[in-house]
From TrEMBL:
<dbReference type="InterPro" id="IPR036457">
    <property type="entry name" value="PPM-type-like_dom_sf"/>
</dbReference>
<dbReference type="GO" id="GO:0005739">
    <property type="term" value="C:mitochondrion"/>
</dbReference>
<protein>
    <recommendedName>
        <fullName>PPM-type phosphatase domain-containing protein</fullName>
    </recommendedName>
</protein>
<dbReference type="InterPro" id="IPR015655">
    <property type="entry name" value="PP2C"/>
</dbReference>
<dbReference type="Pfam" id="PF00481">
    <property type="entry name" value="PP2C"/>
</dbReference>
<dbReference type="InterPro" id="IPR001932">
    <property type="entry name" value="PPM-type_phosphatase-like_dom"/>
</dbReference>
<dbReference type="GO" id="GO:0004741">
    <property type="term" value="F:[pyruvate dehydrogenase (acetyl-transferring)]-phosphatase activity"/>
</dbReference>
<feature type="domain" description="PPM-type phosphatase">
    <location>
        <begin position="154"/>
        <end position="543"/>
    </location>
</feature>
Amino acid sequence: MLIPRAPLAISRVSLASRSTLRATPRPSPITAQGRIASYSSFEGPKVKKVVTEDTTRRNGMIAAALIAAAAGLWYWETSRMGVYPSTARRDEFTVVVGRNVNRQTLTFERKTNTEIEEMLHENEASEVPARPGNPVARWDTNSIASNEPSEDRRAADIVPRGKEGETGQRDLAFFSVIDGHAGSATSQLLSRTLHPALSLGLAGLQAGIVPGRSWYGQIYDILTWAKTWSPINISKSLEASFVKLDDHISAAPIRALPDMLTDQSDEAREKFAALAAPAAAGAVVGTALVDAENDSVYVAVTGDCRAVAGWQGPDGWRSDTLSEDQMGDNPKEVARMRAEHPPYEGDTVIRNGRVQGGLQPTRAFGDAVYKWTTVQGEAVNALIKDAGEKPRSIRPWNFTPPYVTARPVVEYRRLKGANGEKLRFIVLATDGLWDRITSEEATLLTAAYLAEKKRADVNKAKLVQEIPVKTTEPRPFPVQDLPGSGKRDQGQWVFEGDANAATHLIRNALGGGDRKLRGELLSLNGKVARYFRDDMTVTVIFFED
């Protein structure tokens, strides 16, 4: 997320052109034309031969054995050196990274189709709620790593409500995709703690405790049995739980600083560095909450994860983008941040589309170097260095922190819309997916997937004609369009029979009908991969009719 993807520049190089890097196979009795060299053609004395039926059969058996032995020896020798038969040959391709004097051309070996498919299916999962009455019919999820290891995480939990033995008509279902940066410590922690923290906040709300309400207001609510379980209060609870959890993460190293004055052992420093890791790294989050009892769904987003809903009605499909990318190039976020800080910081709060010229998302968990004071940050970083770890630098112009918040923006929808519309699915994904396809394209691809999982490749603009998709107006930033005009018409979408809808979206995001491009994108490894694709995590939530 922090490294911008460069324009893809891939060229293919035939294996023959790099034969100097390969060992030369041993000679075999196979000619250039692929025929067995005839031993009887040797120029020698003319000898009269008597050919019998047994002799012919024996010579045929010998020839067949020689063919098998030669082929086996050639295959063993060449595969041992990394060269494969033509049916499984590994092509090489080059990528160009950097500019001007830093420009580099790097060569990679393309994975086989079998390896590509294994990558696409390795992390996929599909689950069906075991509680009848829950409006969630199924959810599909998958992820593809770019970083080594991946910094993305995901989570899904169903919280039963009501008496034991009841159906799922009162359940709460939580789904989150989590995109880490500067390491996976924050995303790893959130994958285990975010949903419990949200559940705890909602349990308080169910008991009548509304976040932000005064103590006498709380007493009034409890005594009068006021209805606190409402869309506006649920949204407040989600916001407060996000902020409270992030406060605990960012404040944990600061609270531990006094103890480090009395215990300066190596073990204490290592424990401190581990405690500080989730605060030092960062993560953005997209969470969907399904309230079964009230046929409602809430989407809370901190950062640039995104949620898109697909509605189906009597007159077709509608794409409803449920979140707005909270980035340094979003005018709304720029205005908000400048309003939260003194006028003299107007030019430093956001520089070159980034928070203080560094972080792209304007909202995130962790990233405490944008939240601590300079004194606090320097004290924490000194101990992290003593533990042998490399800390993130304290930001310049650190006058009035915090500059980054974990407070999400929450959107609310009923599962049944106006004019007979029904919510059929929500696509929740990290920016690795949205870097390569638009919100509207994700809706189109998922709607088409529900109609037909396996079919011939289809032109992008033609699929729009087959399954028209309207868009909700006004659309959040940035405005994106379906294929139908411009460069996005080029290429094809694929429907290869994936049982998992998240895999279907990832497959199309990685080249669609351009299978060579897909293979090359997934064959990149190391730091170079980040220039062309990001970690990609997708969850598709399906709702019953």
